[in-house]
Amino acid sequence: MSLYYVQKLLYQLNRDPLVRKRFDTDKTALLDEYELTGEERGAIESGDVGLLYVMGVNGQILMHYAALLGQPWDVYIKAMRDGVTKHGPVRAGLYSMLKDRR
Amino acid sequence: MSLVFAGVCSHAPGITGRAARAEPQVRDTFYAKLGEMQQRLEAAKPDALIIVAAEHFANFFMNNMPAYCVGMADAYEGPIEDEEWLAIDRHRVPGNAGLSRRVIQALLADIDVAYAEEWKFDHGIMVPLHFLTPRYDLPVIPVNVNCQGPPLTPLPRAYEFGRALRRACDAQPERIALVGTGGISHWPATPDSGTINEAWDRAFLQRFLANDRAALVSYTDEETLRDAGQGGFEIRTFLTVAGATEGATGELLFYAPIPIFAVGCTVATMRVE
User: Which of A21, B6, B94, B214 has the greatest number of C-beta atoms within 10 Å?
Assistant: First the structure.
């Protein structure tokens, strides 16, 4: 698992229009520049917010990414809840220390 | 001159982005109190506004994360987020690089702050500015306290940073306003978004408004995470404002949990003596 690089890619995607442009037009080459597992790469390619949350991506990075994807608020919140239901508790990072409240 | 104004307010993106979904009466009262804070800020006739925020990976990442960073540019831009999502149009926000440089130099006598000549504002700064300087005509100096990516600065240091900020402001000829934004208890950007621990918030605010340093710095991060969520780490911005107004007490203009805004919405000012 290379959570750091998943977050780094999303961080750069959120803040840099040039990275966003490459994400839209040259995604394979862009993702090749980051050390990602197959699961991580698949989650990013498919915009799987629920799985990215379970992987431990910081929610603030993920919230901006969901906004970038154009996900309505309720869809974004539901995606995280569904992610926990489908994939289990958050695996790493700050949120793995939060008790599952729902 | 010196510090001429100090206050705190919430900055959650829902405050603007999901405005239409809030209960109108409580929302409008909250907005009116932010308007009152704006009036108090303007009445202090500041030359610049230092805004102590807890940014959310708009500028700083775990490859080089400063505990404290101060902006040093003549202009900034924000919001970094989708404008429609935040319901705030992108603006160029004036800065004051010269004043920043003098404040940073003074701070370095006490705190090893980082500085940044580039800074993109996220909702943590843009939401407060939307209400407090809606014409974006007051030069802003952004300050970030890392509240997102642990390890985090200890609470006594956040208070000490406030003390140092006060000394740095008082050494400048300009009239400077200070606003801290963050917290209080919330679980933003998680499936628990909308959860608010009102009792914890009110107890914290009591300590903050009394400027009870010993009580303010006594929280452990483990307790805060358990009782106030990871968003509770943003109390560091409040502690910085308390440190900058040490010896003075505050006035609560508004507090109410607004779940669709995902935070206990807060507006308060501290007396500046």
Answer: B6
Of A33, A44, A52, A63, the closest CA to residue A93 belongs to: A52
Helices assigned H by DSSP within chain B: 14-17, 24-43, 83-86, 97-107, 123-132, 155-170, 198-209, 213-216, 221-228, 235-244
Q: Find, among B257, B198, B261, B266, the residue nearest to B238 by Cα.
A: B266
Interface confidence (ipTM) of the complex: 0.90
Distance CA A37, CA A5 (A): 10
User: A1 falls in which pLDDT band (50, 70, 90)?
Assistant: low
A1 interfacial to chain B (CB closer than 8 Å): no
Question: Residues B150-209: pLDDT tens digits?
Answer: 999 999 999 999 999 999 999 999 999 999 999 899 999 999 999 999 999 999 999 999
CA-based torsion, A53, A57, A62, A63: positive or negative: positive
- Average pLDDT value for chain B: 97
Edge to edge, the sheet with strand B68-71 lists B114-116, B68-71, B140-145, B48-53, B175-181, B2-9, B263-270, B250-258
What is the 8-class DSSP label of residue A92?
Answer: S
Q: How far is CA A46 from CA A49, A51, B31, in A?
A: 9, 10, 39
CATH domain B2-265 topology: Protocatechuate 4,5-dioxygenase; Chain B (3.40.830)
Complete domains list, chain A, with CATH: 3-91 (1.10.700.10)
Q: Does A79 touch chain B (CB under 8 A)?
A: no
Given B11, B56, B130, B186, the catalytic residue: B186
Partners of A14 on chain B (C-beta within 8 Å) are 57-58, 80
pLDDT by residue (tens digit) across B16-39? 999 999 999 999 999 999 999 999
DSSP summary character for residue A97: G
Active-site residue, B11 included: no
